[in-house]
Structure formats: C-alpha cells, structure tokens
Amino acid sequence: MTPAGLIGVGVLQALLLLVAAPLFSGFARVLRAKIQNRKGPPVLQNFLDLAKLMKRQEVVSEQAGWVFHAAPYVLMSTMLLVALLLPVLAVQSPLGAAGDLILLIYLFALPRFFLSLAGLDSGSPFGGIGSRRELFISALVEPVLLLVVFVMALLAGSTNLGTISGKVAAGALPPSMAFWLGLAAFAFASFIEMGKLPFDLAEAEQELQEGPLAEYSGRSLAILKWGLYLRQLVLAALFLALFLPFGSMRVLSPAGALLAIAAFLLKAVVFYFIAAVLENAMARIRFMKSPATIWLALGAAVLSFVFYLAHV
Amino acid sequence: MDAIQFIMLSLLLYCCAALVALLGGGGRAARLAAGWVSLLASLAGVVSAAMAFAASDSPTIALLQLPPFGVLALQIDPLSAFFVGLIGLIGAATSLYSMSSPSVSGAVGFFTYSFLAAMLLVVSVNNGFFFLLFWELMTLLSYFLVIWKYQDRESVKTGYLYMLVAHVGAALLLTAFLILYWQTDSFSFRLWHQAWVSPGVKTVVFLLIFVGFGAKAGMAPLHFWAPGTYSAAPDHASALMSAVMKKTAVYGLLRFCVDLLGVSAWWWGFVILLFGVASTVIGAFYALTERDIKRLLAYSSVENVGIILMGVGVGMFGLAVQQPVLATLGLLAALYHLLNHAFFKAMLFLGAGQVIAQTGTQDLNRMGGLARRMPWTALTFLVGALAAAAVPPLNGFVSEWFTYQALFTASAIPFFAMRVFAPLFAVSLALAGALALMVYIKAYGGAFAGPARSQPAAAAQESNSAALFSLFYLSLGCLILGLGAPWVVSWIAGVVSQITHVPAIAVSSGWQVFPADPGQAVFSPLLAALLLIGLLVAPLLIIALYGGFRAGRRSDVEPWACGYGYSSSMSLTASSFDQPVKATFQLLYWLRTRLNKPFQAIAEFSRSTVRQILRAEPAIETIVTRPATRLVESAGQWIQALQMGDIRVYCLYIILTLAVLLFAIFGRSGL
Prior knowledge:
A: mainly alpha, globular, B: mainly alpha, two-stranded antiparallel sheet, 27 helices, 3% strand
C-alpha cells in the first residue's frame, strides 16, 4: 500500500470511529432499555444530546485551572491519534511509523492523567473520588493488558500493530490456547476499561454524579462525552484489530474499503451486543470488591503466558 | 584546548565558586557571583564531555604521584564523558537555581559547589584508591548538605542514617578494591582491566561492588535512607543527589562490572535485573502513599533507579550470553533513562523547592490551588510530572519504551530463565508505570490543583526569574530528550558500543527510533507529538461547526456540593487520594513498617555504641584529673574561710605571721 493511500485509510477510519462512537453508545443505551423492558431513547439520542450541550453556556467552578479546561480536548485528540494508529480497516497500521502497541497502551495514560487531574482541579469531592477510582482500576488492568500484548507480540515476533494484525489475519499465528486465553483476558480488560456496568465506578452515573465529569458543562461536557464514547469504541477496535482482524483490507481499493467498513461495523455491533448483555446481567460491584474480579483477568493473562511458554 | 583542560577548568571554577560562597558569607552579591562561576564551571564540564566524545582517544592527565597507591590521573573515556556531561547539564540548572535561593550561601554554598567538584572527580579518576577517596569526599560533602539544619534533631538523625549506609557501602567497595589490589598489586584501572582474575574472585568482587554501589544508588531493599535524606537536604541538594549522585553509583557499576572486570556470568545481569524490578515496584508503591512532596519524589527516585538497573541488568546479561543487540539495547535503555531521570527529577525537586518556599510546608495536604498563583512553575512541574509518569511522548516514556523493547528482545532469545521472567518483569514495569501515573497526579494535584488548603498557599507568589529560568531549562531538556529521541539514542548507542566494544547498532533513522530491527517495533515521538497537537483541531472544529463558542463561559460558581454550601475542605486531599491502593495492598505497607525495624535497630545500636565510646574515651579524666581538680577546688574553698574582708583581721594575720617568723628566727639562733 502506498503511504498516501495509507494516510487516506487512516483519516477515513478516524472519521468513521469518531462518527460511529456516539452511535454505538446510543445502540448500547437502546439495548439496555430493551433488556429492562423499556422503550428507550432513539439510537441518535446521543447526537441530539451533544448538539444541545454544545449550544449551552459553559459554567465552570472558580477553583478550576487550565488543566480542567484542557482535559476534554486532550482526551479527544489522543483518542483520535489512537484511531489513526489502529489497523481497523486495513491489516496494516495507517500510521505505523508513529508508534507500536506499547505506545498505544501508554497513550491511554495521557487523557487519564488530564482527566483525573481535572477531577481534582474542579475542587468537587465527586470529581476527586472519581479520579481516584479511575486510576486505581487502571493500575490493576494495565498489567493484564501489557502481559497479553507481550504474549501476542512474542507470538508475532514484533510489537508493531500492523505486523500482529496482519499475521493473525493471515492465519500465521496458529490459534493456540495462549491465543484464546489472551483473547479472553484482553476482552475482559477492555470491558473493564470501557467502564461497563460492574466496573462502572469512575464515572458512575447514579452514585458519583459521573465522577470527573461532575463539574463539566456546555461544550466541554459535550467534547468530554464524545471523547469517552470514542474511547469505548477505540478499545473495542483495539481488541478486534489484535484478535479478530477479519474482513480488513490487504490491498487498497474502494470496494475493499466498503467491505472493511461493513465488516468492522458488524464486528463492533456484535462486541457491543455481548457487552450490553453482560453489563445488564450483572449488578454493580462495590468499589473495593472490584480487585477480586480483576485478578481473574490477570489469572487468565498469566495462564495465556504459561501456555505460550509451553507452546500449547 | 582539549577535553582534559576543560575538565580541569571546570574543577577549578567549582572550587572558586565554593570559596567565593564561603568567604562571601550570606550576601546576595557573593551568592550571585558563586552561582555564575559555578554555571561557567558546569558549561566547561559540558564542553569537556563534548570534546571527549569527538576525540578518538581518551585524554589523560597525571596530577600527582603517590607511590604506594599509584598515580592520581584524570582520564575521560566515553563512559566518563557521559557522566561528566550529565554533571555539567544538571549542575548548570542548580547553579542557576542557587542564585535565587537565599539558603545557598555561606557554608551550604561551599558544600554544594565542592560536592559538584567531588562528583566530577569520581567519574573521571582512573585509580581505585583515588576513586574511593573522592567517593568518600562526595559522601561527606553531601552529608553536610543533609544536616544543614543542624539544630533540628530529626535532620541530624537522618544524616546519621545516611552516613551509616554510605559507609557500609564504602566498606564493601574498599574490600573489593583490596581484593583487586591483592590480585594485581596495583590500584590502577588500566592494570585491573588487563589483569587475569580468577572467576571465583571475580564473583566475590562483583557481589561486593554490586551491594556497595546499590546502597548508594538507593536500590531496594537498601533504599530506606533515601526518603529522609532527600527530605532533609536543601532543594538544590536533593535535586543534585537524586539526579546526579545516585547516577555515580550506576557509573561505578558500569565501570567496574562492564568495563574493568568484564561480565563473566549470565546471573550477574539477572541479579541486577531482579533488584531493579524490586526497586521499581516497591518505589512506586511507597511513593504513592507519601504526603511529604520531597519524600514522594525520593521514593519515585527509587523506582527510577530500578528502571535504570533493569536496563543495566538486561545489558549485562546480553554481554554474558554474547548477544550484542540485547547488550546494546539494555545499556542504551539504562543510560537514556538515567539522563531522562536526571532532567525530570531535578526539575521536580527544584519545582517542589519553589512550592515549599512559598507555602512553608512539605505537606501536600496543606498546599493546593498553586496553579493559579504560580502558573509558570505549575506548567514546568506538569511537564516534569508527565515525563516522570512515563506519559508519551515525553522523554520518560521513550526510555521506558526502550526498556520494554530490551525485555522483549530478551524474552525472545533461547534462554529459559529470560523467556520466563522477562515478560513478567515487563508486567511489573507496567504496574509501576500505572502507579507512577497516580503518584504524579497526586503530586501535581495536591500542590497545584483544586482549592488552596492553607493560608500561605492562598497567598503564594510566582517563583523569581532565576528559579523559573532553571525550571524552564530543565523542562525544555525533557522535551528535547523526548522529541529528539532519534538523535539522542543514536548518540547513546555510540557511547554504549565504545563501552562494551561491540559494534554500534542502528537504533534510529530519520524521525524514528527502533530496537535494532525496525520489524520488531518503530516509534516516532516527534510524529506522535505533532499529531497529538494537530488533532486538537478536531474538537475545536466540532464545537465551531455546532456554533458552540457563541454560548460563552461563566467561571464564578462554586463546585456542586449536593445543594449545600461548598467549602474547600470538601475537596479530596492528597492523602485520601491513594486510599484504595493502601487498602488493597495493605500487606506491602505492613511489611515496610516491619522491615524497617531491623534497620532502625541497627542504626540505633550504632548510635548507642557511639554514645558509649564517647563515655569511655574520657575515662582518665573522670578517674584521675577530675578528682584532683575537685580536691584543689575544695581546698581552695576551705582556705577561703580565712579571707574575711575585715582589715583588722588582716592586721591580726600580719602580726601573727610576724610573731611566728620572729619566733622561728630567734628560736633557731638559740636566744
């Protein structure tokens, strides 16, 4: 693929993810309503909410500094960069020149840093507690993500996203126990990071007044919400790109692109559907009980590593 | 002029600065003069390092012949030059900072500048005896900096612990050097390098040296002196000790294990790696629960020393198993992280110093809201915090990325122990990274974000220009080291190849860095940074499309407190921030209090020994001299009774004396 073509693919998929993100969250809302026997909002409700928020005056607490103001923008820009790096539509990373999988995992730390600081910066007690929960959960999940990434990278012989995705797509990595357990652990970890219900602790809507979001309003809240939707979709896309890169383009062509978009949307719908069913089948965990569950994911990741060592 | 003349110039200027500070007393003029001279000295050091890199040989100068111990000579090979450059670069920042800080005058100034000179000597001398001599000098000078508040009992106690650990380390080094002397009949590095030493002796020497330097580097479990020491020392001295002095221990490790002895067994590297991992995780966990900003930074130094040691360990392992790529990657990661850590940690300590100067406390719970009062200090501190939390694309992340790549390469070679452990070590690094993120959110959030939580914090003033200049310089350094990674790493890879004598390996091309093989991974910090900034346009564009900027903004309301009146005491304090971690990993914190006890007991024992010695030494005085004096005194008092102050009594004395004398004379003549 030509560099120009790749950049085109990158821009296309970043736009796709950006536009599709509120849609998928809307889809999850509808699913939840249906499972709870409610009628639920229309799928496009998130867009309407965002549009309304944009036009509202922003009201900010006087404690807040510039970190608070910058956080939503940093979140969205970082997530867009991740969207550019991921092999979503092609089996190659459109911006593979910028970095590899380790960079990608660490890129999630940048908005986390700003968002958690914003929670403290707002001076709101809910913001502070939300940030502390967010960071605690991520400190537990990060080792899981990295171990699985390491196993996948060792299987593929590279930490470059495109290489791993390409090898999995081409069937060059025989599906082994290591692969399947890695898949399970990574799916679990991204489910937690997406802030789905049993782990909906940082931005808990009912008890923490959405944590770090508590003090945001107007256009900042709109951008922040959009950024969080995007983060969810990007996490799903990361999982799909690493473990299920089927249907992605190998050669650049308009038809291939359309096919890849359709394949991605289909995979994402399935992912969100499973996530929604799981989410609504579970009750919320008490915050301090969550580590016990996260150790499970770590256990799966370690097992995957052991199977890799044993060549199973 | 060549490198050696510049380093002599640098030493001379540091000594001048020390004298100016000492003789000038506490005045502002003397402080400025000493600061400028020391700045020049630091620049001379940097120039010297640059010239040494450019030179094809390693320039040497012999200064003094001391027959039993050999020649005092300075030699700047690439390894020395790297550390000479480091001392110069960080020394420049602290010199600038010193000009603004009233505490750096008189004796403190003298010790600071001579401390810099001593460190320069440590990394450039090429004789074991003199190395140890300057090593001790460095420890001693830094000890005086630690006890600068000598009226404070706590800081004297801290200084004592520091001195004790440093001397245990030095005693181990001395033993190692004596063994080498016994083997080679010389203290000269050149002879140590050439001599054949049996593997058994080498192993003993390695272990002694590793523990000796490890104690100085603050490696876990020998790190317990560090937090108190950095907390007690003045800010610029904490910065120097954490950013530079710790690194001289890494220099020692590289000099003796890699350069002079040569790595002879694979487990050497593995042991270092293991201790590195332990330091990384333990440092991160303990940093998180500190509410004293300087102790927090000190524990974070333990973590970063761990990361550096991980690189050194992988590098030494690579050398032992003849994997040149692995060796280069490991040592490259170590030296790169060492440089990065020096910059961001010096930056953080100096920034913390400004905050402490304004708020009058080291307690994060009593700061808050300083970003509005000290915006520029806050900005530079944020850059340092992002770098230290390994957030891409700053320098701290880039060197951690190389550490990950070194571990990845290690886990791919056919060596079972590494295949099993390297990925687990990478996971530990990830855990430490996530904790470090929390640590620095706590540090920045506690000091700069939210409402002011004390009176002085609410009235804080922006730092003065000299301090700000040094903060800007250091944070700019963080940016350059991160975004300019391709140039920095290819230069460090050259240094590594000169140290290890393996051919240089390409680690960068154009904008990209990669771990020897671009197929394994590529990374371009500059491209990532440009994209991150460029993509900020997207949300702005979205808002503009929706017409969102017309709605305006109000920022005069209080945070939402469920309808009650808001009070700044409702905001989360720094010490409640880490509560979930403290609760989940109770065991680790319980262990610390448990494990600290033996060390405290040892320190207490040695302190009481000193007291006993102080009591035993003047035994002669208590048994002989003092009773005698007491006797004379009481006799005097008894005689005093004669002295009544009445003239008639005195006349009586005279008459009596005359009578006695007359009686004696006439009595003898037989009248």
